[in-house]
Design a protein that fits this description.
This protein is mainly alpha-helical. The chain has 5 helices and no strands.
């Protein structure tokens, strides 16, 4: 917005044109929204880029989901080693189980 202001103004006008506003209203709406930098950034994030502000309360839940998924996903190739007597058997069984799981989840 600071370095390419004219380009951002054109993109904002283009958004208003796409929703059917007249040229006069596009200019007025763009001029109005461009007066407040924070409001303009929020507008462009939401309507131009389709991005929403993330909810800080979700960070813990997301971290927990990712961590648990990593542990469970990591156990898939490791689990066969607990049930066989030699590492070679474990490797073979691990490859089969991992490929099977990848196929099932990919399907």
């Amino acid at each position: 917005m600071e370095h390419l202001r004219e380009r951002e103004i054109e993109e904002t006008k283009e958004f208003f044109a796409n929703i059917g506003l007249s040229k006069e209203l596009q200019d007025k709406a763009t001029a109005e929204i461009a007066t407040d930098k924070k409001q303009w950034v929020d507008f462009m994030m939401k309507f131009e880029l389709g991005l929403e502000k993330s909810d800080p309360k979700r960070a813990t839940k997301s971290a927990l989901n990712i961590g648990l998924s990593y542990v469970v996903g990591g156990m898939v190739p490791l689990s066969p080693y607990f049930f066989v007597s030699t590492p070679i058997e474990g490797l073979k069984l691990s490859a089969i189980v991992t490929l099977l799981c990848l196929f099932v989840f990919g399907f």
